[in-house]
Amino acid sequence: MNGIANTPRGLEDLKINVKIKLSALWGSVMFCYIYADYFVLYEPGKLQAILNGEFFGVGPTTQGVLLGASLMLAIPSLMIFLSVVLPPVFNRWLNIIAGAVYTAIILKTMWGWVFLVFYGVIEISLTSLIVWYAWRWPKAPAST
After folding, report:
1. Residues 115, 61: Cα–Cα separation, whole Å
2. Is the pTM of this model over 0.85?
């Protein structure tokens, strides 16, 4: 079998490998993060607070705060690539753990303006799908 399935309306559909699904989900999550963070800049007073040295309600902007934020956003960025190249067992557990951690982070940070809640719901849906697909990672057929 070549992985092509026929749909009820006769349209060709390919079976997508779980690694590709996970990578695409992480990419989608990152786009949501980027757009939500960009739109936050339009909140009244936000740019002035940044110019005054405040980091999004966390406190003063320091190298440590910026490094922490960079690490937090670097992980999902790297997961786009790592989901495709890592071996299955390690890949599966890394996606389950990272997906669950980022779901918790979003639950903590999504509150505020309605657009943040909107993006938060989408991000939670995506990271939950990451955990679900990784948890249900297909087993290799038994060799005969």
Report:
1. 24
2. yes
